[in-house]
Amino acid sequence: MTIIFKEETFYDDFTFRNSPEAVKRFPFPFPEDSYMYSVNLEPHKSYRPGSVFERTFDVDEHYVSEMRDRARVLAEDPLRCQSLPHMTLAGWDLLELIMTSKAEEYPELFELHRDGAKWHWINRPLGIEQKFTFLDETTLPYGPMEYITRQTQGDFAVLDQRDDNLWMDAGMVTTQADWSLDFDIGMNFFEWHAPVPKAHEMGIFQRALKFLLNVQQGSP
């Protein structure tokens, strides 16, 4: 697998554009012209070759430019990434999941070498080589969640489960539309979805929460 990373921008002159190959990988086209809210979650286990679902974390032609843009956004607004103190261990869990998945599924791009707690991470597209001690924040330039999500496409909400609910207690959210992690941090599932019209009355979020609370360990 060879990925040609594009040099592009997402602001000012806005040179972003999808190649024909990238368009073919989209989870589109939709079969209908209009849609209403629904709970359309599914198990992430039957990977679809050639699609964005083929691997655990997708890496595409925009990867390098998107990560460069994420760094730019965070430099201007660092509160786009936050993690409450009790979520540090979850951040390490996310770091382990992403590093092991990428090293296994993109061996030409990423490497992870582990000797007990001594880890060595290599990210070739971004030119990063980091030796650190797992579970020791002082050995990384950022907290574990921020460190790895600065190197992973997509926004992340890392949720805590308690009181039969999910709480947005950590996240890396730099490309959101019309909401703010800084405002929603610490809110529960219903509170941060409160502004969404109609979906509450339709019971969408109640069903989604019930589904998510029943997701089993190791069954994404």
Count up the helices: 7
| Average pLDDT rating | 94
Class derived from helix and strand content: alpha+beta
Tell me the strand percentage band.
15-25%
Helix content class: 25-40%
Q: List SSEs in N-to-C order.
A: HHEHEEEHEEHHH
Describe what this molecule looks like in 3D.
The chain has one domain (36-213). It has 7 helices and 6 strands, in the order H-H-E-H-E-E-E-H-E-E-H-H-H. The chain has helices at residues 20-24, 63-76, 88-105, 144-149, 181-184, 189-192, 204-213, and strands at 81-83, 110-115, 118-123, 128-133, 156-162, 165-172. A 3-stranded antiparallel beta sheet has the order 1-6-5. A 3-stranded antiparallel beta sheet has the order 2-3-4. A hairpin with a 4-residue loop joins strand 3 and strand 4 (128-133). The protein starts with 19 loop residues before the first helix and ends in a 7-residue tail after the last helix. The mean pLDDT is 94.
